[in-house]
Specification:
This protein is of the alpha/beta class. The protein is built from 28 helices and 17 strands. It folds into three domains: 241 residues, Chitobiase/beta-hexosaminidase domain 2-like (Chitobiase, domain 2, 2-Layer Sandwich); 208 residues, Alpha-Beta Barrel (TIM Barrel), CATH 3.20.20; 184 residues, Up-down Bundle (Four Helix Bundle (Hemerythrin (Met), subunit A)), CATH 1.20.120.
Length: 752
């Protein structure tokens, strides 16, 4: 198997970076599990992954900590044994797993992703002519966004978590959030302080919204949490932590950021509280959080109680996450106040764990740049000793903050690719920025970079972007993206196919290469509440996507037995239909403005009753695109019908209205079978019929009135009990072919 572009340079052993030398305060962040425990864990992973072929690999962990050098960057060695087996020696279990996937990907042409695996191993295994030594350029490869726990992980059971942790290890991820189950710990703390169970129930949000309660953005919406929920999540967290630690990962536990229930004003009437402003277009019934005064003794009391109880339950790896002021404005811009806040948060950690390191998402600096000027940023960051805080430069592929803050004024940071907002489906990427950004950050004057990371709000989309970012975490210089894309297509499908490779090259130069700043919210009119003012501008040439669609259809006869190919066929057809929906929307708008009832009816009927119904059928044919799976897994965690209905309400709300009044309407939009037909198409049908009625009655279209009418459609979708299939229906290849034959000629005619 030919190696992808840029691989040869990775065979050089690299010198550990700042994480080992420049920040001795981080040197204690090492796996607690022994070499033997980690070796056994990675061997078990190999058996889960490869079955009987796992016997062809010998995986061993040998931790390396040179005297006085601090903790080194992850490294592995690959070699062939005389009997034909491949030996993988890693400095941690994660490093060994990363080495295993390196070999599988580079020499066996294998592929592992959220959407499927391609693990056709040759017999015998390709021999290595010499020992390959590969060392990562950084200490850390981080994973997760606080929001991931709501947009993607919320309904997961252990089987799903086990697959994810395996993927994390194979991807070289050695630092990850471990936020599951913390509400059970908070409940113990609140009860011991004197809150009533009713007050706690009223404060906690529902499962699909826990991420924003944890960051102090909201409370009380879509809850309460049941005892069975707490018990389930505690048990799950124990298994997650055991597996992460056994592989040598460093789990990041939550810590106290200062937010408390409103009932604290009853418990501590003499204390000073700040009531922050509203968030997410919610009123103060569900937002306007209470923040304890940083100088208050109660601040330290609560923080200490929580961390003691948390460590008693879960033990610790000495790194904790807390996000103060996420998308919220502090009550004062006074540097002394901001330093007192960060100092209080850090002190609440170190009074329990003197070795504590604070990990913080750096999103706040980007979200409200008018507030976070250099003086304010420096004040917040310098409230913590240098080297005892790690900042996640959360959106560095598009809006790096390190360059605006002189490398976070001396605090170590991790260069992160956020990529996805809300777990939206829709092709998107910034491959050139991803390929070069980390190297620019390391070369920045006085850089304090200690790692790379992936921080999507939602996962299980755009596999190619995450595969690229994870591979770059081992690289010492940028890859050749053309060679990489061709190699990716071959690995993903298990064989070379020129049409498929060309499709990926077209996608890499268009939809996956946004070189101008744009958050990856899917802006397609298809998934937004209809109006006459929706945007359809693109950052790429849509004909590249249509031609890629054509090329993938040409590859069907040879590749249709591949699960990952069929997934990509659905996804690329879905993207093409999304583009067509925008074109029909423009036709609808033009017909209305030209007072053409016939044109309006023709375009509207094609969109609603043909295109969107066909799209729904296609999505329903693949298990990765099913509303029924999302709803079914939500209900599966319940122990009573009442609880199941609450979880389904959470699941339906999050992907549609989000809040009670459409507060973050369509933020978490998905193109799923069932959702397209009964939610998006229903809204568009009402929109078209309303426009026709306006023309017939010669009255203007009023958006505010339409919003009231369509809100009923949206609410009805949330409260109805229609059951959707949780298994695919129909033949993906045949449905995709039908859509292609019907719409591709129109698409090309429109755009040539």
């Amino acid at each position: 198997m030919a190696r992808p572009g840029g691989v040869a340079v990775l065979l050089l052993l690299m010198v550990p970076g700042l994480s080992a030398v420049g920040f001795p305060g981080l040197s204690h962040l090492v796996p607690a599990a022994s070499d033997e425990v980690q070796s056994e864990a990675v061997q078990q992973l190999c058996r889960r992954l490869l079955g009987p072929r796992a016997n062809d690999f010998v995986l061993t962990v040998r931790q390396q900590r040179p005297a006085g050098a601090g903790a080194p960057a992850p490294a592995f060695e690959l070699s062939s044994l005389p009997d034909g087996r491949v030996q993988v020696l890693g400095t941690t279990g994660v490093a060994a797993a990363g080495g295993l996937y390196w070999y599988l990907r580079t020499f066996c042409g294998c592929h592992i992703s959220w959407s499927g695996r391609q693990l056709q191993l040759p017999t015998p295994l390709p021999r290595l002519r010499r020992v390959l030594q590969i060392t990562a350029p950084d200490r850390f490869h981080y994973y997760q966004n606080v929001c991931s726990y709501s947009y993607s992980f919320v309904w997961w059971d252990w089987d799903r978590w086990e697959r994810e942790i395996d993927w994390m290890a194979l991807s070289g991820i050695n630092l990850a959030l471990a936020f599951t189950g913390q509400e059970a710990i908070w409940q113990r703390v609140y009860l011991s302080l004197g809150l009533t169970q009713a007050e706690i129930n009223d404060y906690f949000v529902g499962p699909a919204f826990l991420a924003w309660a944890r960051m102090g953005n909201m409370h009380s919406w879509a809850g309460p949490l049941s005892d069975s929920w707490h018990k389930n999540q505690l048990n799950l967290q124990h298994r997650i932590l055991q597996r992460m630690r056994s592989l040598g990962m460093l789990p990041v536990l939550p810590a106290f950021a200062g937010f408390v229930p409103a009932s604290f004003t009853r418990l501590f009437p003499k204390e000073n509280f700040t009531r922050l402003g509203s968030w997410g277009h919610l009123n103060c019934t569900y937002s306007c959080s209470y923040l304890l005064d940083p100088e208050s003794a109660v601040f330290q009391q609560v923080g200490k109680m929580f961390l003691l109880e948390l460590i008693k339950e879960f033990d610790t790896d000495h790194i904790y996450s807390a996000d103060a002021f996420n998308e919220m404005t502090p009550r004062s811009s006074d540097p002394r106040y901001l330093s007192s806040i960060s100092n209080a948060i850090f002190k609440s950690m170190t009074q329990v764990d003197p070795l504590a390191i604070w990990l913080m998402q750096g999103w706040l600096f980007l979200n409200k740049p008018w507030f976070w000027r250099p003086t304010q940023v420096k004040a917040l960051l310098h409230g913590v000793p240098l080297g005892r805080m790690i900042i996640l430069d959360l959106f560095a592929e598009s809006r790096p903050a390190y360059s605006l803050t002189e490398s976070f004024y001396g605090q170590p940071f991790i260069w992160c690719m956020l990529h996805n907002f809300g777990g939206n489906t829709g092709m998107y990427g910034t491959v050139e920025s991803i390929n070069r950004g980390p190297f620019k950050a390391r070369a920045f004057p006085n850089s304090t970079m200690v790692g790379t990371g992936i921080t999507p709000e939602g996962i299980e989309q755009n596999d190619v972007v995450y595969e690229l970012m994870n591979e770059i975490s081992w690289c010492q210089k940028p890859l050749n993206l053309t060679e990489w894309a061709v190699s990716y297509a071959q690995r993903r499908y298990g064989k070379r196919n020129d049409a498929a490779a060309t499709a990926w090259l077209l996608l890499f130069r268009s939809v996956y290469n946004n070189t101008s700043y744009m958050q990856n919210h899917n802006r397609s009119p298809l998934v937004h509440r209809p109006s006459l003012k929706l945007g359809t501008a693109l950052w790429y040439n849509k004909t590249d996507v249509y031609e890629a669609w054509n090329r993938m259809q040409k590859a069907v006869s040879e590749l249709n037995s591949s699960d990952t190919f069929r997934y990509d066929l659905v996804d690329l057809t879905r993207q093409s239909v999304q583009l067509l929906a925008s074109e029909f929307y423009e036709d609808i708008k033009t017909a209305f403005l030209q007072h053409s009832i016939v044109g309006l009816w023709t375009s509207g009927d094609t969109l609603v009753h043909n295109l969107l119904r066909d799209l729904d059928s296609l999505l329903s044919s693949d298990g990765h695109f099913l509303l029924g799976h999302w709803l079914g897994t939500a209900r599966s965690l319940a122990t009573t019908e009442k609880e199941a209905n609450l979880y389904e309400f959470n699941a339906r709300s999050q992907v549609t209205l989000w809040g009670p009044d459409g507060n973050l309407l369509d933020y978490a939009n998905k193109q799923w079978g069932g959702l397209v037909k009964d939610y998006y198409a229903a809204r568009w049908e009402l929109f078209v019929s309303t426009l026709i009625r306006c023309l017939e009655m010669k009255i203007p279209f009023r958006q505010a009135h339409f919003n009231q009418e369509v809100f009923e459609v949206e609410q009805n979708f949330i409260v109805n009990r229609v059951k959707y299939p949780d298994k695919p229906i129909g033949n993906t290849v045949e449905i995709a072919k039908k859509i292609f034959l019907q719409y591709y000629p129109q698409a090309m005619k429109r755009n040539n």
